[in-house]
Structure formats: structure tokens, C-alpha cells
Amino acid sequence: MATSADLDQPGRDCPLCARLADFRNANRAANPDWHNAPVASFGGADARLLIVGLAPGLKGANLTGRPFTGDHAGVLLYATLGKFGLAEGRYGARPDDGLRLVGCRITNAVRCVPPQNKPTGAEVKACRRFLAAEIAGLGRLEAIVALGAVAHGAVLAALGLRKSVFPFGHGRLHRLSDALILADSYHCSRYNTNTGKLTTAMFEAVFRDVAARLGRR
Questions:
Q1: Could you tell me which residues are beta bridge partners of residue 145?
Q2: Using CA atoms, how far apart are residues 153 and 144, in angstroms rounded to an integer?
Q3: ∠ CA(154), CA(11), CA(119), 5° rounding?
Q4: What span, in angstroms and rounded, lies between the C-alpha atoms of 39 and 52?
Q5: Rounded Cα gap, residues 66 and 155, in angstroms
Q6: pLDDT at 134 > cutoff 80
Q7: CB-side neighbour CA atoms (13 Å) of 100
Q8: Tens of pLDDT along 3-17?
Q9: What is the three-state SS of the chain?
Q10: CA distance linking residue 139 with residue 158, whole number of Å
Q11: How far apart are CA 211 and CA 87, in angstroms?
Q12: Per-residue pLDDT for 1 more than 50?
């Protein structure tokens, strides 16, 4: 079985997307003590659940170097994972807080922070190879949770599947194969939670269903 280090990851100075590379370099100049590089996945390669977000937040993962760490979205995500036995420890919004994932792993469809938190379709496509390699390298993978429609589409594209066959919808559960399911959720962004598009109860319902299928609760 692959180890976490074996899974394909972009290099620190990944050149695939010129716009993102320029933005990364500008942020390195402005904030030299930030991570300012592609953000590696968090969690072990023995994960049965993979959570796929959109992209690192400018003052979240791009600063701290750990997915969903340091921004609003991480507060709800990590609290939910802890509630359903998928994380242990206290989320302290920093990579050395001691938080540990249990049987799950977190990544993003795009590994570098995009301007205004909005990657282009071409950037999602350029990063697809890393998501595809990650999914293929997780030998115990049984379920994927896609946070948002872009992540949903990226997962399907990485697996060579069509969105028309598996349309996105919050709370939907798609059987992709005998061995793999895909669960959809709205992204746990500040905008979605502040506007009420996504409530804590709605978010927890997705993970309750997935955790039950994985035998957690």
C-alpha cells in the first residue's frame, strides 16, 4: 500500500498554471513567512474517506500549509469530523495543533491558492493529475465527499466519469462503482454558512450518512 509520501504531489514551485504561479510569487514577496506553495493533502494514505475541497484559502491553508486550517471553513469541517469519529484532538487553526485524522484524508481540487478564491476551469484541469493519482493511490478508499460543485466535477473527471450521469446536489449519494461512493455537500465556506445556504445540521447530515456507511456511527 502507498504511504502518504508516495502519493503524487505538485512541487513547491509547480509551473502548471501561470496565473497561480504569479499569484504565489507575489504572496511570497508580501508574506515571506507564509506557506505560499501548493498545499499537500492532510491525513494518512490508509484513509477510507477522502474529502475534496476547492482550493487553499489565501489566509487559511496558503498561510498555514494544511488544508482548511486557519480559515472559517475549517472550523465547521474539523468539528464535524470530530463529532463522527473521523478526527481526534483539538482543532487549533494551526498545523501543529496536534489534530489527527482517523481513517480520512483531506485534499483540494486545486492545490495552489487562486486570486479571489476562484480557480479557472483550466486550473482545475491542470491539477487533475494530482487528484487522480491521489485517488488511485488510496488503496482502502471507500468514499469521497465533494465540497461544492467544482470539487464534485473534479472528482468525476479524475475518475473518467461524466457529470451528466452523476449530477451534483447537496446530500446526494452517488454509487460510482461497487467499491466507491461519492457524497455531495455544499462547501463549508463563510459565504454559504452566513447566508444559510449551508447549515451545521445540513453539513453534519452528509457526514453522518457517510460515517454510517463506513461503520463509524
A1: 51, 183
A2: 12
A3: 35
A4: 13
A5: 20
A6: yes
A7: 5
A8: 454 567 899 999 999
A9: CCCHHHCCCCCCCCCCCHHHHHHHHHHHHHCCCCCCCCCCCEECCCCCEEEEECCCCCCCHHHHCCCCCCCHHHHHHHHHHHHCCCEECCCCCCCCCCCEECCEEEEECCCCCCHHHCCCHHHHHHCHHHHHHHHHHCCCCCEEEEECHHHHHHHHHHCCCCCCCCCCCCCCEEECCCCCEEEEECCCCHHHHHHCCCCHHHHHHHHHHHHHHCCCC
A10: 16
A11: 12
A12: no
Q: What whole-number distance in Å separates Cα of residue 161 and Cα of residue 154?
A: 10
Do residues 54 and 187 lie in contact, with contact meaning Cβ atoms separated by under 8 Å? yes
Q: Do residues 211 and 104 lie in contact, with contact meaning Cβ atoms separated by under 8 Å?
A: no
Residue type, 86: L
* CB of 78 closer than 8 Å to CB of 93: no
Single-letter residue type at 68: F
Rounded CA separation 56/149 (Å): 16
Measured from the Cβ of residue 28, the count of other Cβ atoms closer than 10 Å reads: 14
For the record, the C-alpha cell of 194 comes out as: 452566513
Place of cell 470539487: 151
Confidence band, pLDDT 50/70/90 cuts, at residue 23: very high
pTM over cut 0.90:
yes
pLDDT of 116 reads: 93
Domain 4-213 adopts which CATH fold? Uracil-DNA Glycosylase, subunit E (3.40.470)
Q: Sketch the domain layout of the chain as residue ranges.
A: 4-213
And the C-alpha cell for 30? 508580501
